[in-house]
Amino acid sequence: MSVLGIYRPGRSIVHRLPAGVKLVLLAVTILVMALFVTNPVRLALAAFAVIGVYGLAAIGPRAALQQLRPLVWVVGFVFVFQIIFTDWSRAVVVCGVLVLSVALAAVVTLTTKTTAMLAALTTMLTPLSRVGIKPSQIALAMALAIRAIPLMVEIIAQVDEARRARGLRFSPRVVVAPAVIATLHAADGFAESLTARGLD
Fold it and tell me: 16, 25, 41, 52 - which has most CB atoms within 10 Å?
C-alpha cells in the first residue's frame, strides 16, 4: 500500500501553482461545495470538476484511487448514519462532498512540498504577529494537520487490512483501538521530531 498524501514531483500546471494559491483555492472550493452541492446532480458536476483537477495535476486514476480507497469504510459508516437520520439523497451528497474534499486535499499535498506549504501559511498568517502570535508556529501546526489527515486514513486502512488478513470480524476492539494506539504512536513521533529541532 502506498503512502497517502506524499509529495510527488511533477511539471503539471497544478505543480507550478504557488502553494498559497492552492491552499486558498482548496479552502474556497471545499466551502463552496459544502454550501452549494445540495443534490446528486450538483454532486456529479463537482465530481467531474475534481476529475479535471486530477487531470491537470497529471495524477493518474490508480494514484487517485489510492488516495480514496482507505476512506471506504468511513464513508460507509457516514452513509448508514445519514440514511438512518435523513434520506438516501442527503446521504449520497454528504458522502460525496466528503470524498471530493479529501480528494482535493490530496491533490494539494501530492503537488506541494511541505516547505512551500509551510512558507505560504507563514506568509498568510504574518498579520497575526502584530498581536503577539507567532505565525511560524501556527503555520507549522496547520501543515502538520494537513499532512496528518492522510496519515491517519492510512493507519486506519492498515489496521483494517490486518483485521481482514486475520479473518476477524469488524468490531471497535479489533479496529478502533489499534488505530487509536497507532495514531498516538505517530503523534509521539511527530512530537519527538519537533523537540529534536528545538520546537515546543
Answer: 25
Q: Which pTM was predicted?
A: 0.72
Task: Measure the CA–CA gap between 96 and 82, rounded to whole angstroms.
Answer: 12
Domain hosting 93: range is 13-196
pLDDT per position in the chain (200 positions), as tens? 344 557 788 899 999 999 999 999 999 999 999 999 999 999 999 999 999 999 999 998 888 887 777 777 788 888 988 999 889 999 999 999 999 998 998 899 889 887 888 888 888 888 878 887 777 777 777 767 666 666 776 777 778 788 788 887 766 667 777 777 877 777 777 666 666 655 55
**Number of domains within the chain:** 1
**Does residue 4 sit within a domain?**
no
Give whole-number Cα distances, 4 to 26, 159, 197, in Å: 18, 15, 25
Q: Grid coordinates in use for 92?
A: 449520497
- Would you say residue 7 lies in a domain? no
154 touches 4 (CB < 8 A):
yes
Give the cell for residue 84.
Answer: 438512518
Inside any domain, residue 2: no
Number of H helices, E strands in the chain: 9, 0
